[in-house]
TrEMBL record:
Name of the featured protein: Uncharacterized protein
Signal peptide stretch: none
GO molecular function, one term: crossover junction DNA endonuclease activity
CDD domains the UniProt entry points to: MOC1 (cd22992)
Species this chain originates from: viral metagenome
InterPro entries: MOC1-like (IPR045290), RNaseH-like_sf (IPR012337), RNaseH_sf (IPR036397)
Length: 166
């Protein structure tokens, strides 16, 4: 039975990376999903039903799934309302993982970036560059736009998790 490691960048512009693994640390397939969101007028929120379905489908066949989630933190200059929405979405992600009994590890952004982007700028575009180095064929198809930094972050968070005990 194959294992599955998730890397989750929890923001609305974030993503979920799914690493299907055979032997420990041997990736045979990567998939990436943009964070499912609902837009109602000007309001944006997490589509928790879609996220639940995605995670639940990964458990099919009794696969062992573990998740590495970027630890939430407030950002200087971010408004109270947007911080509140972000933290609500973050809590929903953690709740869905807990409800499905998917073990999670919270990873501080500085921690995964220090290992995965050593000797690189820690800017958003640097994660895309690092993914292009690690997974060139995948990146060529799935990381083609600047806005795909959330996908790249999710991939690096998941890969960090695999390297450190996923």
């Amino acid at each position: 039975m194959n294992n599955c490691v998730l890397g989750i960048d929890p923001g609305y512009s974030g993503a979920i990376a799914v690493f299907n693994c055979g032997q420990p640390n041997h990736v045979y397939d990567i998939r990436v999903y943009d964070m499912p969101i609902l837009k109602t007028g000007k309001k944006t929120e997490l589509d928790e039903v879609e996220l639940f379905t995605l995670f639940d489908n990964l458990l099919f066949g009794g696969r062992k799934v573990s998740a590495f989630v970027e630890k939430a933190q407030t950002m200087p200059g971010q408004g109270i309302a947007s911080t509140g929405r972000y933290l609500v979405g973050y809590g929903q992600i953690l709740g869905i993982l807990a409800g499905l009994r998917i073990p999670k590890t919270l990873v501080h952004p500085r921690t995964w970036k220090a290992k995965m982007m050593r000797d690189m700028e820690k800017e958003k575009q640097a994660s895309i560059l690092r993914c292009k180095q690690l997974f060139p064929e995948f990146a060529q198809q799935h990381l083609t736009l600047k806005k795909h930094h959330g996908r790249a972050d999710a991939i690096l968070i998941g890969y960090f998790g695999m390297q450190t005990g996923g």
